[in-house]
Amino acid sequence: MTNKFIEFFKEPAFIEPIKDEETIKKTYSHFRLRIFYSSFIAYVVFHLCRKNIAVALPSMGQALHLSNTELGLLGSSLYVTYGIGKFINGVLADKANVRTFLPTALILSAICNLCFVLSSIFVTPGHISFFGLPSGTILLWLLCFFWGANGWFQSCGFPPVAKSLSYWFSNSERGTKWSLWSTSHQIGVFAAVMLSGFAIDKFGWMAAFYIPAVICIITGIWLFNRLRDKPQTIGLPDVEKFRNEPEAKAEEDEENDNRSYFQIFKEHIICNPVIWMLAIAYIFVYIIRFGTEDWLVKYLVEVKHNPLPLASSKLSSLALIGAGGAICAGVISDRIFKGNRTPINIIFLVCLIFSLLAFVANPAENNIMDFVYAAMIGVFTAGPQMLIGGLCAVESSSKKVASASIGFTGVFGYVGAALSSGGTGFMVDKFGWNGAIAFWLVSTAICVGICVILLIYEKQQKKNKKA
Predict the structure, then answer these.
(1) In this structure, what DSSP letter does residue 387 have?
(2) What is the pLDDT of residues 159-175, one digit of tens each?
(3) Alpha-carbon distance 346 to 348, whole Å?
(4) CATH code for 19-237+261-466?
(5) 314, 68, 59: which is closest to 207 by C-alpha?
(6) In terms of Cα–Cα distance, which of 10, 169, 3 is closest to 95?
(7) What's the CA gap between 137 and 147, in Å, rounded?
């Protein structure tokens, strides 16, 4: 039984290479497109079972009598398990079959959403007591458990995608392809917000969990058919060799590197100061990212007195227009900064501070500018979020540990996410919404400072290489 389980997830072996050049070209063309759109759709759908809670918070908190701090604990339970899981599953994904690893995780995430809803049906606050504890306490524990379990399976989504993008697209095109794929984050949030808002409006808050769960299960089954692992597992050559790029020899040498996985991991991640700086910066990127994504609807409802559909629409503009920020960051860093990602990170983060201040200062009755400022927050968050913990991490390490490098920075990112969720709820309860806004602004400013240090370090490293 255990052997069958391991075999199901084990990375498939390389097969006999295809000899015919025309067949290689056609096969690569077919599967590169297929891998890209499958990975894109997969990550969009993953968000349906993760970001649905952002829209459900106001009505769920009221229905279950949960405080802002308790609602923040729910978010933190996901982010803690997501962060730990992203690293562990990143290491596993480097040696796992993308075709089975990713769809299975999506289906299990959907099951956790269903269990989350069922918990609130079977345990009603204030009605009965379990083992001497109030039923409300038991319910909160159950919700945290299933939402935390959801975080673990959600963390299995990004590492196999990072592996696929690293192996199916070469260095010269990876920045553009990665930035295009990264819009799945924002489109996923947009889809989750719109779907959850509609579901709650028509069927109540529980529908925001069971409707996305059904969609995720169906998509997971479809992904088993669409996805594939490395090109070599279907008889294709390494992508750099296929595209005749200057990096082909280096990539071939890396592929033939006989050092153990741990040795490569140690050199390119554990002993890599750039990865560590990126990881620490990622903490603060995620504080502002998830602070706005998870709490903006509640802020608009409570502070600007927006009805829920209007507040959800404003959050959706943050997500949808924000997708353009990821593309711009990737393209600008490629074409203007010649592959140097740090300057664009600094520029975007400074603009993010001003966008957030403008959003807060905008009068409640000026809904149009709220949409504009929310979109700007999305744009200037999406760029650093995509670069710092994603593309920068991969480019600063080795392709052989691509998933692990993403997982490593992801651990720190989701430390930030947990701090964001619990911290924002605490700040609102203790100091009001101004305290939460200050929490986000200070976090962004700290991230700017770390990126400046990273920029100085990178320049010094270049000088040392020339010397």
Answers:
(1) I
(2) 899 888 888 887 767 76
(3) 6
(4) 1.20.1250.20
(5) 59
(6) 10
(7) 15
